[in-house]
Amino acid sequence: MKKLLITLAVILTAATMVAVFYGPAAAKVTGVCSDCHTMHNSQESNSAATGEPLATLLMDDCVGCHSSSDSSTTYPLGSSTVPVVNFTSGAPATYLAGGNFYWVADSGGNDDAKGHNVLGISGVDSLPFAPGGFNCGSNNNCHKSLAEEQDMFAGSGCQGCHLSPAHHADDSATVIGAASSSTDGYYRFLSGHGNGYPHGVCGIENDDWQANYNAGNHNEYLGFSASKTDINSLSYGHTVTAFCCGCHGDFHMEQKNAEWIRHPSDAVIPNTAGSEYANAFEANGTGFGIYDPNVPVARPNFTDFTGPKSTVAIGTDMVMCLSCHRPHGSPFDDLLRWDYGNMLAGGGSNTTGCFACHTKKDTGS
Ligand code: HEC
Ligand code: HEC
Ligand code: HEC
Ligand code: HEC
Ligand code: HEC
Ligand code: HEC
After folding, report:
1. Ligand nearest to the backbone CA of 201
2. Which residue ranges have their beta carbon within 6 Å of ligand 6?
3. How far apart are CA 160 and CA 80, in angstroms?
């Protein structure tokens, strides 16, 4: 699989080195209303919805409809296709871009460190609050106690992060969530949670949520190339990093005396000749590497994007939260994309994980 990906990537890059266009995402529900809604929650006097009658007269709740025991990626519902985030029949071998809740689910791997603990999927995490985040108990009293903060994903469930679900909204534009008051539900219906952070994520949505992907076929994420002195600014724009930091406040660009003291997010991968970064994503000093959907980067803007690009522009594109983490869950602690315990310095010639950017830490060359 990996080999095929690399081969494809090489062909794509060699052939064009420019944007590869994939048709506009038709990610809007279609089909008869009764596939998903029930008007009175009654069918021949029996209740129609799963559990209690639900908001917006739905047949099932977010977790129910987005879980499956048959497929770990997508399943058909009438003429719509449901993206699956919680596979219930064992550890999934394949999963969508956000990862999968299987590993954190009480009915699955049941390991709190491997995902965000969402009501209906797993019990409350033992962590006192979002690491790096605010103790929101003392902050405007939104969450009055730590217990309530632990319940961040309980009161609102999935909507702790997907605050603006808009299944019927038109999201046929290439770039989603570009406007401050978007009606398209923002990128994947994600909008910010914390104080001071702007609402709504902007990005390019892959048609099948990366059930299939390669160097030229993937999501695109917006980043904000803050200058190193701008680290305390909250004006991170409509970026994934700003979104994550709405809850994990401190974890982006902290420096002390111009030295990094936390791994930066939204820091440009420097194109400094001779540095390991100039070789990132196999750029080998050319300024352009091969995009790896397993180690995504953020773009400073989408001005000339007609779809996803198959290259990483070294000196322009950025490392960000999702370069290393899967937001729903992963087989690894801290919902990481790779087994951090297996990132061995000087171990060989790995080109993925940390080594995608820190190219000289493995081979030593
Ligand atoms: C009855 C089934 C059903 C229910 C209930 C449901 N969804 Fe969905 N959801 C879908 C389908 C179908 C899609 C795919 C629509 C499309 O093609 O974009 C989808 C897509 C999504 C997406 C991806 C959006 C994108 O841009 O691709 C998110 C995020 C999402 N749903 C979150 C939620 C949340 C949060 C809830 C609860 C408020 C919820 N869903 C309830 C069926 C459902
Ligand atoms: C594939 C599943 C699906 C189908 C088919 C579907 N809906 Fe929905 N609809 C949803 C989901 C999920 C929500 C709740 C989350 C949201 O608002 O995005 C929703 C929300 C709504 C809402 C409230 C929010 C809004 O956008 O106004 C209305 C009204 C609605 N649907 C009407 C309809 C009607 C009428 C039909 C048939 C013509 C229909 N739906 C077909 C999944 C579906
Ligand atoms: C901690 C925040 C967070 C929580 C909680 C969360 N999501 Fe997501 N979700 C995300 C992010 C971020 C993405 C975008 C991932 C990407 O594109 O790389 C996403 C993507 C998605 C997608 C698109 C498929 C994919 O994997 O990219 C669906 C559908 C979805 N979420 C549904 C849900 C449902 C249903 C729940 C509750 C069971 C939920 N999410 C809980 C952050 C969250
Ligand atoms: C709505 C608030 C919220 C948002 C937004 C959010 N998180 Fe979290 N996150 C939490 C809370 C609360 C915890 C601790 C409880 C848990 O793991 O469910 C947590 C835990 C974590 C953990 C540690 C997991 C563990 O259990 O050890 C990681 C890693 C993480 N988040 C990464 C992210 C990333 C990356 C994003 C952005 C895609 C993000 N979070 C967005 C609230 C949030
Ligand atoms: C370069 C990779 C990388 C990036 C980028 C990154 N993280 Fe992490 N993160 C890790 C690793 C590795 C860990 C495991 C613990 C450690 O080594 O510090 C971790 C741990 C965490 C934890 C758990 C901390 C705890 O106390 O248990 C949270 C929360 C988290 N990251 C959130 C974020 C957020 C939010 C962003 C973006 C602002 C982000 N991470 C960006 C690699 C990264
Ligand atoms: C997508 C690219 C990317 C990935 C993946 C990545 N990093 Fe980084 N890393 C960077 C960038 C960019 C910087 C900041 C470079 C600069 O401007 O000084 C950085 C800085 C660092 C630093 C501080 C270096 C210094 O000069 O102070 C360490 C240590 C580090 N990364 C470790 C890791 C580890 C461990 C992993 C894997 C968990 C990882 N990184 C994954 C891009 C990445």
Report:
1. 3
2. 260, 263-264, 267, 269-270, 295, 297, 319, 323-324, 340, 343, 353-354, 356-358
3. 25
CA–CA separation, 311 vs 313, rounded Å? 6
CA 361 remoteness from chain centre:
26
- Any idea which residue has 């809850």 for tokens? 247
Burial class for 258, CB neighbours closer than 10 Å (0-12, 13-18, 19+):
exposed
pLDDT digits (tens, 9 = 90+) for 220-248: 999 886 554 444 444 567 888 888 887 77
Pocket test for ligand 5, best of 332, 334, 354, 358 (most atoms within 8 A of CB): 334
Say which residue the tokens 């791994």 belong to. Answer: 263
Residue nearest to atom 19 of ligand 1 (CA): 82
Q: What is the pLDDT of residues 54-86, one digit of tens each?
A: 888 888 889 999 999 999 999 999 999 999 999
* Average pLDDT of the chain to the nearest whole number: 81
Instruction: Measure the CA–CA gap between 209 and 199, rounded to whole angstroms.
Output: 22
Count Cβ atoms below 10 Å from residue 361 Cβ, excluding itself: 16
The pLDDT score that the predictor gives to residue 363 is 63
Question: Of 114, 169, 119, 184, which Cα lies nearest the Cα of 148?
Answer: 119
